[in-house]
Amino acid sequence: MSSRLGEILVANGACTEAAVREALQQQAVFGGRLGTNLLELEAVTEEALAFGLEARHGLPALFGELVPDPHALGLLDRKLADRWDVVPFIVAERRLALLARDPRDPRMLDEVAFATGRSLHPFAVPESRLWRLLTRWYGVRREERGLAGAHRAPRSPPAAPPVDLAAGDPGDLIDEAEFEQLYGRLVRADGGRGAGAAAAAPPIGEPTGAGGEGPGEEGPPPLTPAVLEALTRAPAHAPPIQLLPAPARPDEPEPSPLGFDEAVRFLEGIEERGAIARTVLRYARSRFRRAALFTVRGATATGWAGLGGALHGDAVRQLRIPLDAPGVLGTVVRTRAHFLGPIPRTEANVRLLAGLGGGVPRSALAVPILALGRVVNVFWADGGGGALVDPAAVGELLILAARISRGYEALARRAV
After folding, report:
1. How many CA atoms lie within 13 A of 17 on its CB side?
2. Span 228-254, mean pLDDT?
3. pLDDT tens digits for 54-87?
4. By CB distance 3.0 to 4.6 Å, which of 196, 207, 332, 338 could disulfide with 319?
5. SS3 42
């Protein structure tokens, strides 16, 4: 076992060694913590995972439906909550119970204690639960991964008849006027920012979506014995006397494009999944105006990374494209074949183009990337508004897609 958490869970009888190995392979391809991938495989319960995190960190852990105190939420701004993956939970005078993905990170503890002016009592929380809290109470969009129930996406897209993208499907296409109306409405709703920029976040302490009333209506969360004990007896992490502000980071320039031979060489020695995205996007910028990578999970393609035009990391990560509705991405996933040509006028395609920003191209290229026996990514590229894709780049991209698939398989083997 390469993960201490995995060893703890196996020793506790919470899951099997085979499940840990499968989760490590999935982690190499999709990212996230080991526990998140185990939850997605339904190989461990959230409660058992929390007990494992408690043993690993030597700190109490919480799980299940957690409703933070609105007074606690107001102590920390979105930027720091997002940066450190933390959510303030309960405040009692000068003490603050903090839900954290990495509850022993000294830099996180110092910065959050300094920002809130409270002594911190950190609690370990499963990553997927913390992501749900960040989305609901801070408007920080994170992947809905790991937790069972209504929010879990199926492991594979539902069966659907193939769509002939070249000919179109008259029952699914919208006419030109409807296309322009829907595209314009989506872009206007986005404030003209394009690239799937998120809507303005709600005030902290107010939920951002479905899931019940806000904490103001429900009242503060129940003070469990573990929380009470930590707040009254356990030592806390006191705010540092002085914390130097982090130097302002200038906007990072877009990385330089890569030629095909350079991209092939870079993909030979991939050590982590992020390097895959950086390499293929840098190559794409030598041939296309804009390019994006999507992660395929269940019936949704989620934006992972992008370059060119109005695309940037935060905006791309807001993109959620349904795969069970007629559209380019859904058909590429179902058929495992690439697409090159004009973009059919379907609602899923309109939402994709509005999210990418920068106008409607005359043609686009979408290439599936396979690993673990299924499509795990889709690469999208186009020439921007009104432009055609250069078909000469298709062969090179198909070669890179095959190299990426082999890179994923190597990462999965090394993970176990």
Report:
1. 5
2. 69
3. 999 988 898 888 889 899 999 999 999 999 999 9
4. 196
5. coil
3-state secondary structure of 40: helix
Residue 393 DSSP label: G
Q: Write the single-letter amino acid at 81.
A: A
Separation of alpha carbons 274 and 271, rounded Å: 9
- Tell whether domain 176-197+253-415 is in CATH 3.20.20.70: no
Give 242-255 pLDDT, tens digit per residue. Answer: 776 655 555 566 67
* CA terminus-to-terminus distance, the chain: 7
Query: Residue 165's pLDDT is what?
Result: 42
For domain 70-141+201-232, say whether CATH 3.10.20.30 is its number: no
Place of tokens 């830099």: 107
Q: Give the C-alpha separation, 225 to 204, whole Å.
A: 27
So what's the pLDDT on residue 172? 60
pLDDT at 129 over 90: yes
Angle CA 315–316–317, to nearest 5? 90
- Please name the residue that has the structure tokens 């990426």: 404
246: phi > 0 → left, psi -120 to 50 → alpha, else beta; which? beta
